[in-house]
Input
Amino acid sequence: MAQRRRRGTRARAQASPSRIPEPAEPLAQPRVALVAGAVIVIAALALYLATAARDIVFGDTPELVTAAVTLGVAHPPGYPLYTMLGWLFAQAPIDSPAFRVTLLSVVCHAATVGVIYAATYRFARSIGAAAVAAVALATQPLFWSWSLVAEVFPLNDLIAAIVLFLVALWHERPDRKALLVGAAFATGLGLANHQTIALLAPAVLYALWRRRDALLAEPRLIAYAAAALVLGMLPYAELLVASSRQPVATWGDLRGLGDLLAYVLRTRYGTTALVSEPTLVGGSALARTAAVFTTLGVVHFALLATGTVFAWRSLRWYATYLLVAFVVAGPAFAAYSNVDIGNPVVFGVLQRFFLLAYTAAAPLSGFAVVGAIDLARRTSLRRSVLEGASAAVAAAALVALAVVNLGSLDRHDDHAARRYVMDVLAIVPQGGIFIAGADGIAFPLLYLQTVDGIRTDATAIFLPFTRETWYLRELRRLHPDLSLTQEAYGTRTMPFRVFVDANRSRSITIVGELPDDAKSAYWLYPRGIVSEIRPLTQTASLEDLSRDADAALSGSHPPAFTDIDRPFRPWERLVLSDYATAYYRVGSEYENAANNLRASAPDQARQGFTAARTWYERALAIEPDFAQAQVALQRLPKT
Output
């Protein structure tokens, strides 16, 4: 009786849901799998290295590189882990600082490909499946494109892949407690890099719930995991240290734990909001959700959909686990984000967040090969033949797709951001004040002045920050020659005009529009893509305006129109519009003058309209679909 009772106890222990036994089918050819995985990772690394940007590019990249090189403070929430790792990569004695920090993205995404290979091999138990999953992720255009620039997302993807892999391994072997503690520590590090890794929480909670008996049996494990999570977030303390050093590249003025908490939570910009500008929100949630799948691409979507079906049939808990991560990080986040993807730049910002979802779901693509294994079981065909053939076909399709996308994604010769800022600085007078109205000019300028030491004589001011007290303090520290009599400018009580009034002894130029509160006293005199802020009392002739604009634009370097439609590069079109607008503004001045002369001096009016037409046509030569110039040409008299 006792023996029977012990046997029954043993049977219940084996059936306990706290642990799934190892699959009966062993891992196939582990040595071959290791070699195949290494080859794929090395190939991905080589591809990314060959096509990576050697210079700064548009977006957050110049600011993040500058923060990394100087160990400064990047924009909220600060990205301290990325900054510290970027600083280590910046010490490499190769190429430019921008490329050195970009290597962090190259390495992180190549390593992510390796983690996806390992995870797929472990759970699909197939070298072919692992190879397809890894190659599919490596060649997915969005994933590939963000492997080539200095950004926080590749590091986020790597940590996310590691967390999901560790939790899945623990799910199978709850007795290996170190796996769960390691996943918690990696999650903390992930939060110290990019907070969207928290979107994996529902998937992780699903795995924990399935193994709740193991957790309840080991309460200390929960405490250890919580401690590891907090320990992983310690890099945030570096933000206080960095701020105390008063680096040149700093965003905010962190003086205590309260400031740090507000910074990390992004309270100034909206903790749970993707964008803070009211003009950038709205649009269709359905369109944003659909964009997650259309950006993935037809081939990759077909692999993911097929693989999900076979994963659901062969390993349902794992398929559910990854699908929860994908849905929350992808479609659900896109729908919630509430941004207007009709704006190309805003859409480009949103697309970067799809990377987490693609990484989470990547192993499912490999399960498409499992379908061949399933077919082999139903027929007399050999499993190895069907598995190898299906994997080869899928890999060949992915490689062919990569070859097709190579030209459009390659950024190794991308110098558009540098050329744009150099064109701006070529117009700014020596010792002048330059006002940047948007990130597209402010961040590359920050890099060129701080890291490369170019045109440090010019005092650069980021217009949106002039409302911030901490920014005015930084300007006083870095530029004591500025006249800053107020604690903020551009507010209702203190218009930006007051700043211009106080610094009129120096030349002041701007890219962008003059703030409304200054238009009552000042106007913009076009000098190419830059405008000089002049008092209304200081007039200029059309001949002078035309001559100065032509001189400024003759040596400029606008991006080619054929380059601006490359995928995931919306900022180039905005820059191209800046160059086209420079020509358009001169044409509009001629047109306005001609309209005023129509009755009193018709011959001069005709000459004015002819000059306006010439300038509008020059704008369209830069940007053929520049709508303002097209409308203006239709508006001009036909004679």
